[in-house]
């Protein structure tokens, strides 16, 4: 690509060099798997095949004699998660769409799908990060039947898209794409929702008032409309070319949404090994696609969770990316979007203002993404700079707008909201961590203050309620890493810390836990690695040695996360006993074998040697 920004090229080249052996080993495996399973009738004995299509009804004969490609559907349907509730109706029409072109489709398997919004601050959140590994394993179980020529992935939310992608990549000899369902309609204004949350944190709003406010925000089928991890997932799948172009933010149960799903099925059938347009997933997800995902995340101010997810799903494709790579990309990529919680409007407003199509065109025109990636769309990345529309009931694409429809929400490369992507690497004698500056006012990018150390977010809430934090303070919440308790999100800390900040105090958070795309305005060093809990060799993370009153300096400007205290010679603070209940004890194996946050926080990838 001749106009590629040299900074983007440099990071991509470094990733490719670092990944050379692991990437080649992955591609060699996928080539062998593709050759072995090119003809399922030659691989599977008749009894196995008969079991596989016994319940396929009118599709039996086509599957039995390979008269067309058979698409395996991996679904994360449940009707507790609003984003996934529409998927309950997807398989039957997808089978009809397949028959239109001489193909077939079967639900190959289902994966669990938990909602961080439901489990936030509750015991179940300690299962959240490792649910990604479970989802990947469940997808692999479904695809292990070896009955399929392509894969349709039905998933949207936080750990679900990364988990499905990790699982599908281990079957990367097959074509695959994601089929989204779209966001719910906008609810109450986001500032009003934030206002009520802070009032509740201060004891000035009742639980009934809070519940009424939240119910007006999350109120119907579809993805939650703030720009958190779920919607960042959708953006990344577009930037990686794994969606039908423009599919991310079209509302559920609309004619356009149905036609995009039909197009996804038809495209999967066309990309099979037996045709003349074979596009296996393994060849689509390479170092350039991974860089595009990271650039999109930075340009749009997406979820910090992806500082963990991108390294994880990249590893599944043999690509090794770290936080230094992401920090350097951030310095090259301007912030083009202000979507709640980094702005006032939600993803529906973002989509209406020009959305991903406008962002892709801006990034491409400035040489900030790789245009030469292979995508599921025949026209390549250029197709993702267009918008899907229906004309005379036929799906087609039109160019994205020349200028944003809302300049408070969408900027251009020539006139961005910030000169960089707002994700900084901070490091020092307390470890390495991520700091999302795009959600924080610049005057708060450096905080130095005595720390107050906690082992749970509940203890923080009690100290806040007792007035113990009414001062300049850096709140440290440790023993929240993958090995300690599964690395839950600590999003419920944002309202009380936001209150302290609004009272005029200098406040920051330092934690080896996660926040999210909804973390908001409080400066935070998150995903601190190494985590506080000792690793398998008995090495404790620096946070385990901090004590109340130690002065901590956090600076996104300097890239600093350090204490002036002398930690040498101190004993580590005793780690809490792992909690039981809500199934947490069943995940002990995942915790014990988990890798560090910068490597993706996975036990499955560590044990697989990836």
Automatic annotation (TrEMBL):
Residue stretches making up the Dihydroxy-acid/6-phosphogluconate dehydratase N-terminal domain: 69-382
One term under GO cellular component: cytosol
Matches recorded under InterPro entries: 6-phosphgluc_deHydtase, Dihydro-acid_dehy_C, DiOHA_6PGluconate_deHydtase_CS, ILV_EDD_C, ILV_EDD_N, IlvD/EDD_N
Enzyme class: lyase
EC code(s) of this entry: 4.2.1.12
Catalytic activity entry: 6-phospho-D-gluconate = 2-dehydro-3-deoxy-6-phospho-D-gluconate + H2O
GO molecular function, one term: phosphogluconate dehydratase activity
GO process annotations (BP): D-gluconate metabolic process; Entner-Doudoroff pathway through 6-phosphogluconate
Keywords per UniProt: 4Fe-4S, Carbohydrate metabolism, Gluconate utilization, Iron, Iron-sulfur, Lyase, Metal-binding
Cofactor requirement: [4Fe-4S] cluster
Domain of life the protein comes from: Bacteria
Keyword presence, Translocase: no
Pathway it works in: Carbohydrate metabolism; Entner-Doudoroff pathway
List of residues binding [4Fe-4S] cluster: 157, 224
Domain Dihydroxy-acid/6-phosphogluconate dehydratase C-terminal positions: 410-600
Stored SUPFAM superfamilies: IlvD/EDD N-terminal domain-like (SSF143975), LeuD/IlvD-like (SSF52016)
Cofactor notes: Binds 1 [4Fe-4S] cluster.
Family: Belongs to the IlvD/Edd family.
NCBIfam families, per database record: edd
Function: Catalyzes the dehydration of 6-phospho-D-gluconate to 2-dehydro-3-deoxy-6-phospho-D-gluconate.
Protein name in UniProt: Phosphogluconate dehydratase
Organism in which the protein naturally occurs: Novosphingobium marinum
Gene name in the database record: edd
């Amino acid at each position: 690509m001749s106009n590629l920004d040299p900074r983007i090229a440099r990071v991509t080249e470094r990733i490719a060099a670092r990944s050379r052996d692991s990437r080649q080993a992955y591609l060699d495996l996928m080539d062998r798997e593709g050759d072995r399973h090119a003809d399922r009738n030659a691989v599977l004995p008749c009894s196995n095949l008969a079991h596989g299509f016994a319940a396929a009804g009118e599709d039996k004969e086509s599957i039995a004699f390979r008269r067309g490609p058979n698409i395996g559907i991996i679904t994360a349907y449940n009707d507790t998660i609003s984003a996934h509730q529409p998927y309950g109706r997807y398989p039957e029409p997808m089978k009809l769409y397949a028959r239109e072109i001489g193909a077939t489709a079967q639900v190959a398997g289902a994966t669990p799908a938990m909602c961080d919004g439901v489990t936030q601050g509750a015991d179940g959140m300690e299962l959240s990060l490792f649910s990604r590994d479970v989802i990947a394993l469940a997808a692999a179980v479904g695809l292990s039947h070896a009955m399929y020529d392509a894969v349709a992935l039905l998933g949207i939310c936080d750990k679900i898209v990364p988990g499905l992608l990790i699982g599908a990549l281990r079957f990367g000899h097959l074509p695959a794409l994601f089929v989204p369902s779209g966001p719910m309609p906008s609810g109450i204004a986001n500032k009003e929702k934030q206002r009520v949350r802070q009032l509740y944190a201060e004891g000035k709003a009742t639980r009934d008032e809070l519940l009424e406010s939240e119910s007006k925000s999350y109120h119907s089928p579809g993805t939650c409309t703030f720009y958190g991890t779920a919607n960042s997932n959708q953006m990344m799948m577009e930037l990686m070319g794994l969606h039908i172009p423009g599919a991310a933010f079209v509302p559920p149960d609309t004619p356009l949404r149905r036609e995009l799903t039909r197009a996804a099925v038809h495209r999967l059938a066309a990309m099979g090994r037996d045709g003349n347009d074979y596009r296996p997933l393994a060849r689509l997800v390479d170092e350039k696609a991974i860089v595009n995902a990271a650039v999109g995340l930075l340009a749009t101010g997406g979820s910090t969770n992806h500082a963990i997810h991108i390294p994880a799903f990249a590893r599944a494709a043999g690509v090794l990316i770290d936080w230094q790579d992401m920090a350097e990309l951030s310095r090259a990529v301007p912030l083009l979007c202000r979507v709640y919680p980094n702005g006032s409007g939600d993803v529906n407003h973002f989509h209406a203002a020009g959305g991903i199509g406008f962002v892709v065109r801006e990034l491409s025109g400035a040489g900030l993404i790789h245009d030469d990636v292979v995508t599921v769309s025949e026209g390549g990345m250029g197709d993702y700079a267009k918008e899907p529309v229906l004309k005379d009931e036929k799906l087609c694409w039109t160019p994205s707008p020349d200028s944003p429809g809302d300049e408070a929400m969408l900027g251009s490369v020539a006139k961005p909201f910030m000169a960089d992507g707002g994700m900084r690497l901070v490091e020092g004698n307390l470890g390495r961590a991520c700091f999302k500056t795009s959600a924080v006012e610049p005057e708060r990018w450096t905080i130095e203050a005595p720390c107050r150390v906690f082992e749970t977010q509940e203890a923080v809430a009690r100290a806040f309620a007792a007035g113990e934090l009414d001062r300049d303070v850096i709140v440290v919440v440790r023993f929240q890493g993958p090995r300690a308790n599964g690395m839950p999100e600590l999003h419920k800390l944002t309202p009380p810390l936001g209150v302290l900040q609004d009272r005029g105090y200098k406040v920051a958070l330092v934690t080896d836990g996660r926040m999210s795309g909804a973390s908001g305005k409080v400066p935070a060093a998150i995903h601190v690695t190494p985590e506080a809990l000792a690793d398998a060799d008995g090495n404790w993370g620096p946070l385990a040695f901090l004590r109340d009153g130690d002065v901590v300096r956090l600076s996104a400007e300097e890239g600093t996360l350090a204490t002036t205290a002398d930690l040498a010679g101190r004993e580590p603070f005793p780690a809490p006993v792992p909690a039981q209940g809500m199934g947490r004890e069943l995940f002990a194996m995942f915790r014990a074998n988990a890798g560090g946050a910068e490597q993706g926080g996975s036990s499955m990838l560590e044990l697989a040697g990836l």
